[in-house]
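I am hoping you can look over what I have pasted underneath with an eye to the fold:
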Amino acid sequence: MSELKPAADWTTGTEAISYQSCGACRSIQYFRRSFCAACGSSDLADNVASGEGTVYASSLVLRAGTPEAREHVPYNILLIDTAEGFRMMAHGANDLVIGDKVKAGYRQFSGRLVPFFERAPQ
């Protein structure tokens, strides 16, 4: 089996959110794999998401889990239903609520680049 190369996205320091689409069954998946989680095919393409989505869930963190995160408290952890159809966890503005339309930007959090969602312009 060949080694899965990381896509150029926020996990590698690039301002992008990547996902995979299956050429065999047209399923999409956010977590990179060497096979399609729906049908098992290895016919996968890397794509870059638009950064648009809707807040599915929101959790305001008031107590940092690590010493590095203390400077960010309070911070919001969100589940975002992306325009492309996958769900992802990300940081976001503290005033976001379920159902808000959002757009991703990128910020530093504890020394790492992370997607940061804010309310989309109307």
